[in-house]
Every structure is written in structure tokens, then in C-alpha cells.
UniProtKB/TrEMBL annotation:
UniProt name for this protein: NAD-dependent protein deacetylase of SIR2 family
Record: residues binding Zn(2+): 149, 153, 187, 190
One annotated GO molecular function: metal ion binding
Keywords for the protein's UniProt record, in alphabetical order: Metal-binding, NAD, Zinc
Limits of the Deacetylase sirtuin-type domain: 14-294
Length: 294
């Protein structure tokens, strides 16, 4: 299989950051509708970096002593009591923190009162937690806030916080283990193992998220042809390009007059066929969004 990468390389250097910010400001002023699309790079820039070794050592000292160094633990063989200790601490930190996030709040203020939607591969609910309307956010990869059966025996999912609170109450950070086996969650229906309701394989239960995807598709399809659309894509690389990156290119390609702003320090390239309707921004989200108010 041949993977076709983007065909136009970014040429902006540090001196071009103010120019890129000015272009986005102009395009925002000219847009009636805004679609914000985000990948892991946005949350990393906002302080939720799964590769942060210091934060990993702080939260998971026992796992650090075992030689692990990041939160990318899918596929790492750990006993259930250690794995659920990890998931409970990780999800509590990433998904249920109550503090507002300045970068997401800044992005919300930039969108303002324009008609808008959000599509994100992130499962941390940071958009909804920072002022974006929950019923206008499409999260096709799931939500750390819910659990599902791994079989799955049902298409039902469950609020994860009560399960996680029981785990955390029995969690020993010194050993990284859940000390009470009764605190380990199982499916309420069939007693099989459960897992966060996020896409890791064909067993993913996506029914809770598809209605938002349908509403987003209608919003895109039903708009008047004279209502300019701006797609602002932030931090979406090539880990899962079929979730955010490729769909956003297709939206702009097939929407007359639509524009794409791609913000990504590592993979900012945009398709050559979009011509002047695409802006490649090779900077981190935090640096670029802050430049918009400079």
C-alpha cells in the first residue's frame, strides 16, 4: 500500500509568524462559519503531553521504577491491578480536572459568536470543559469519561467517574497497584472486563458519538453557498490521518470558497491543489494562538 502524503511543503520561518497570524485574523473576519479540528498536538500544547517524562514520574512513580517513561501504555503487559491504577490516575488527571485551560479558552474567544463546530480526535473533553457547546463537538475516537464492555455484550456505555473513584480509593501510588480486587471494574451485564470507551479496535462502541457526526455533516451540507467556511486544524499529524487530517482536506476541497489553516510544528504541509485557500503554519498551537493577540 502506498501512502500519499501532502504535496506542498511549508516555507514559513519564525519571522513569518506575525504574517500567518494576520492572515488567520483576516480569514476569521471573512468567515461566517468556523470548523475547529484538533488532534493530540493541541492538548499537548495546552499542557497535556502524553510524552512528558517528568509528569509521568510524578503521577506514576511505581511504573517509572519499572522503566516506563510515557503514558503511551496501550499494549504494555501489566497486571490488572496495575493497569487499572494507571488508567484511574491518568483519566482523573486528563479528563476530570476542573481547572480552566488558558489555551483552549483562548481558542474559544477567537471563534467568538461565529456559527461553529468542533471535530477532534482527542478524548479528554477539553473543548467542552472550556466553553465550547457540548452538542456541537464531534469526538469520533470516544471519551475517557465513559467505560464499555470489552466483548462487547451491549452497545450501552457507562459514566466512568464512579468506577474510577472506587479504584482511586484503593490505589497505592507506592506500588502502583489497586489493593482491593473488588474495586476493579467489570461489565455490569456479563462480568467481562471493561475498558475506557475509546477507539482501540473493532470492539469500540461508538453509538454515543455518531449522532454528533450526523449533525456536523448536515451543518456542512446544508449551509448556503455564500456562507464562507474556515477550517482551523490544529495539531493533527499522521498517527491517525484518516480521523482529522484527511477529512478536513476533503471538506475544504469540496466546499466552494472554503479555506484551511493547518497549525502543526512537525507536519504543516497542505495539499498543493488547495492553492491560496490553504495556509500552512509550522508552529506549535500555543505559540501561534498567542501570536494572534500580539
Amino acid at each position: 500500500m502506498t501512502i500519499q502524503h501532502d504535496t506542498r511543503s511549508a516555507s514559513l520561518g519564525p519571522a513569518d509568524l506575525p504574517a500567518a497570524a494576520e492572515t488567520l485574523r483576516t480569514w476569521l473576519d471573512e468567515a461566517d462559519r468556523v470548523l475547529v479540528a484538533a488532534g493530540a498536538g493541541l492538548s499537548a500544547a495546552a499542557g497535556y503531553d502524553y510524552g512528558d517524562i517528568d509528569r509521568f514520574r510524578e503521577l506514576f512513580p511505581a511504573l517509572y521504577r519499572l522503566g516506563l517513561r510515557s503514558r503511551y501504555l496501550l499494549g504494555v503487559p501489566l497486571p490488572d491491578d496495575m493497569m487499572w491504577g494507571y488508567w484511574a490516575v491518568h483519566i482523573d488527571d486528563i479528563r476530570f480536572g476542573s481547572r480552566p485551560n488558558s489555551l483552549y479558552r483562548h481558542l474559544r474567544s477567537l471563534v467568538g459568536d461565529r456559527d461553529h463546530w468542533v471535530m477532534t480526535s482527542n478524548v479528554d473533553a477539553l473543548f467542552a470543559r472550556n466553553g465550547f457547546e457540548p452538542d456541537r463537538i464531534f469526538t469520533p475516537q470516544g471519551d475517557y469519561g465513559r467505560l464499555q464492555c470489552t466483548v462487547p455484550c451491549t452497545q450501552e456505555t457507562w459514566a466512568g467517574k464512579p468506577f474510577l473513584e472506587r479504584i482511586l480509593a484503593a490505589y497505592d501510588p507506592g506500588t502502583g497497584r489497586v489493593t482491593d480486587p473488588a474495586a476493579l471494574p467489570v461489565c455490569p451485564n456479563c462480568r467481562a472486563a471493561v475498558f475506557p470507551n475509546v477507539r482501540v479496535g473493532p470492539e469500540f462502541v461508538d453509538g454515543a458519538y455518531m449522532p454528533a457526526g450526523d449533525r456536523l455533516a448536515r451543518w456542512l451540507g446544508d449551509a448556503p453557498s455564500d456562507a464562507p467556511l474556515l477550517v482551523v486544524e490544529i495539531g493533527a499529524g499522521f498517527n491517525t490521518p484518516g480521523v482529522i487530517r484527511r477529512p478536513m482536506e476533503n471538506v475544504v476541497r469540496h466546499t466552494p470558497g472554503a479555506r484551511l489553516v493547518r497549525v502543526n510544528p512537525d507536519h504543516p504541509e497542505v495539499p498543493a491543489g488547495l492553492g491560496a485557500r490553504a495556509l500552512s503554519v509550522p508552529f506549535g498551537a500555543d505559540r501561534f494562538l498567542h501570536a494572534l493577540t500580539a
